[in-house]
Write the structure tokens for this entry.
Amino acid sequence: MDLKNEKEVALVNDYINAGKTLDDLLTNKHFNNDLKDLQEATKAKNAIPSGSKRSATSDKTATDYWMGKDFKDVPQEHRAEVLKKTLERERKQSMYATK
């Protein structure tokens, strides 16, 4: 297992706090998918030049970006905020819904 940054270490700690062992993580497909997604997101973020005319126009880590995506595709570090905003939006919609 090759951990390259704090977010990857935090992911390992999340799984360990959930009761997994390091040996379990090596074969856990959910952990491996989450780690792969995190590594790919980091590569993509590092590949986009910052402060230039060719930089991305929107922040791909923003909660609003992930709101329209399938929840299983949302990176672990954004899930709590996306869930919170989704619940807020649903609460507001039901408040104005006609019966």
Remarks:
- The CA atoms of residues 71 and 79 lie 7 Å apart.
- The radius of gyration is 17 Å.
- The chain has two domains: 1-52, 58-99.
